[in-house]
Amino acid sequence: MKKLFFIPIFLMLFTTGCVPKSIIDDINIEAASAFDELEDDTFIGTVLIQEYLPDQSTENKTFTATANLRRDLLLNIQRQSSEPLHLGGLMVTIFGDKLADRGIIDFVDNYQRDPSIGARNFLATSSGSALQILKGEYGPRGNSDYLNNLIEHNMRYRDLPETNLHIFIRDYYTKGKDPYLPELRQINNKEVEISGLSLFKKDREVHVLPTEKMFFFKLLADRHSNGSFKVDLGIDKEAEIKSIASKRKIKLSKKYPSQVVIHIKIKGVIPEYTGDKITPQIVKEVEKALEKEVNKECLSLVKQFQEQGIDPIGFGFYHRKQIRGYDFKKWEEDYKRLTFKIKTDVNIVETGVVE
Amino acid sequence: MKRWLNKKQNETKPNKADWEKTLEKSNDFTRSNYINQKSNVHFCLTFIATLVDEQIIQQGVLPYLLEGELKTLEDIKKTVPSADVEISNDQTVIDKKILNGYIMLTIDSEPEHFAFIATQKEIVRSLSPPEIEFSVIGPKEAFVESLGQNLNLIRKRLPVKELIIEEYTLGSLSQTKVAVLYMEGITNEDNINTVKQRISEVEFDAITDSSYIVQLISDNSNSPFPQLLDTERPDRIAGILAEGKIAIVVDGSPHVLIAPTTLIEFFSSFEDYFLNWILASFFRLIRGCAVLFSLLVTPIYVAVLSYHYELIPKDLLGTLVTSRRQIPLPPILEALFLELTIELLREAGARLPTKVGQTIGIVGGIVIGTASVEAGLTSNVLLIIVALAALASFTTPVYKMGNTIRLLRFPFLIFAELWGLLGIVFAFCIMLTHLIRLTSLGRPFLEPFYPPRATDLKDAFIRLPFNKQTLRPLFLRTKNRTRYNKKKATEKKDIDE
């Protein structure tokens, strides 16, 4: 028994060299990367590294290389780096316009297999050059932090539906659902913004949803936890609804499999109102107006997806899930014939302290 | 003298000249002859001057011997006002009696008989507050080096006839008195017999402290974990005796042993019982976390910085990289350097008198710490971590367990360096396996976690109120499990009802 006990200890001692070491100050940790495609089927990639300076500030450093094959890219970049590059610190990956049109799954697949890369990494597309976004200067905390926080807070509190590496891969492999990613645009060397939402068919970008529609898209695809929206009530009357929390339910019936009913429930608070006193009547009015607008916009969005043949909300998935014995091979045809009905229920819970 | 005291020689009949010859070599061996004034009987007193109290001889023995009726040895019992007077004709006990502080009295007419009168000099330190297990609330008495006084401290806390004290003499040279205490009708017979057997089988020449007994009778002497708890608080001893445990008091040691124990007892301070149960539970949980923190934080630092950089949160990465930028050493050497420095400081502080010790603490903490950071030998993040870990290890209420924890950190560090987090898990598994196998007097050391005993969890990580603790710990297998009858207790009505 005692001898047996020593075997694992000896094994541990003799196999210590098998574990590759990566001491944090002796490696370069990739913080963000961007990929794009050049004219002649070659890829170009940029890797961003945060250099931590002794005075606690950070410096952005980028390496750029081209290659014919995806896996050569990192090798070519390694040749420029003073210390070995490691992927584990990755926060944001941006895919250029061209590459997104061609398909990005090869790159994402690489991330999926590397255990050091977290599943909550952000993926994004760019309008314009992806590489230039990384080469900007967006504040003292470093570009990767900036981009990461930009996407994160917009997902948590604003109109961007939640996406990350995990959700992208899930949507990609789910039958009857297509992924979507935020689109970034560099305004100038010091500013960058979220310019829309890229909608994919499998791994190819098909359409970019403008920012005005993102609120409605999030109602359909995800749920709001702290959104805000402005409602017009005719001349000189505007109400802003805040702290919007929404839920949506998609219902199918076996009887009418070609009709999809989407229930959207919205709860909100009115902190700003440009008219006079808010009476219960006005609250009703606001609720009605919002309901109407949501119904209209959402329906047009859904119909647009139907025409484009993409399914970011996952109606196909709901068919598979909710209808027993549904033959998914028919889905492509069924989708074209699908009719939609949107029922919205808005509830204003509070109108401010002063009555 | 040493050879003369040897047991084997004692078995062969020692002749009178033999013990006298050896004792006469010592200067404090005294023999003087007197004559009784009434009966003119010649008598002789033999004693060792350093062991007897001269005041007792001058005031309590000699006047009566010189002026009282003294014809035979039997008369001593009438004349000398001392409770401990013994008359014997056994030559083999002479040396023991004399060396225990008795004076031997012989009369020419009765050469075969000797009388022994107790005149021991008791040099006793006065009671002082406990130093290692100090508590803000609660009694401020601690054990001292005298067996009699220690037993008195326990007896007066448990004045019942069920408290049994059995005495043994151990050590061929030191002749140390060891007392085993237990409650009859409560304590498990098996436990008592195990303790008695192990104590009576101890073979050692000089037992100068209770720590010797711990090492000699514990179940696994190769374990870094202490398996018997030692305490300097008489109230704690009274408490554990009532629970059904056994106490071992050793003469000359201010620490009393408790057996059997469990691991969790080493992390519970007796002050926990003086506080409200919510506060006590909170402090116990803090202490538990501190122990884990102290054990694992430096190894985790080494493992993460050497192998698992991707585990570091992005906001912390900058701080860590900046702090390590100038350091020429890999994380393991950096950590070992600092850990050893802290151990050096502790060791130096423990060996020096208090005032110098404080200076050393300041020199070590401030000068060495900041200087090594400024010189670029260690990172300031690690300095904080190591200092906190050292601080956390001192929260263990039992000093010996704190030492064990600090020692265990080093194998953990080495495993962390070799295999990263996997190595830490492996080291933890080894430690856990060892703890599971460990026993204290044959009772499982890791109880109530392994074997799981839900009822004993009431007084483990958290301490539930006394009205929930109606039963004695299960693992002690006490003869009478109920501490008090809950029904009876609730039957009594409040005075204002």
From TrEMBL, chain A:
Q: What species is given as this protein's source?
A: Cytobacillus solani
**Localization, UniProt:** Membrane
Q: Name one Pfam family in it.
A: Spore_GerAC_N
| Record-level GO cellular component terms | membrane
| Protein family according to the UniProt entry | Belongs to the GerABKC lipoprotein family.
What region holds the Spore germination protein N-terminal domain?
22-185
The residue ranges of the Spore germination GerAC-like C-terminal domain are 195-352
Domain of life, per the record? Bacteria
Q: Does the record carry Membrane as a key word?
A: yes
The organism that produces this protein has a lineage beginning with: Bacteria, Bacillati, Bacillota, Bacilli, Bacillales
In Swiss-Prot or TrEMBL terms, this protein is called Spore gernimation protein
Which terms under GO biological process does the entry name?
A: spore germination
The UniProt entry, under InterPro entries, shows: GerAC_N, Spore_GerAC-like, Spore_GerAC-like_C, Spore_GerAC_C_sf
Q: What UniProt keywords apply to this chain's record, in alphabetical order?
A: Germination, Lipoprotein, Membrane, Palmitate, Signal
Q: How does it sit in the membrane?
A: Lipid-anchor
Automatic annotation (TrEMBL), chain B:
Q: Where in the cell is it found?
A: Cell membrane; Membrane
The record's annotation in Pfam families points to: GerA (PF03323)
How is this protein situated with respect to the membrane? Answer: Multi-pass membrane protein
What is the protein's major site of localization?
Answer: membrane
Q: List this protein's GO terms for biological process.
A: spore germination
- Annotated membrane-spanning segments are 285-307, 357-375, 381-399, 411-436
Task: Name the domain of life this protein comes from.
Answer: Bacteria
InterPro entries per UniProt:
Spore_Ger (IPR004995), UPF0353/GerABKA_families (IPR050768)
Q: Which UniProt keywords apply?
A: Membrane, Transmembrane, Transmembrane helix
GO cellular component, as recorded: plasma membrane
Its family remark reads: Belongs to the GerABKA family.
Classification via PANTHER family: LEUCINE ZIPPER PROTEIN 4, SPORE GERMINATION PROTEIN
Q: What is this protein called?
A: Spore gernimation protein GerA
- List the source organism: Cytobacillus solani
Per the UniProt record, the lineage of the source organism begins with: Bacteria, Bacillati, Bacillota, Bacilli, Bacillales
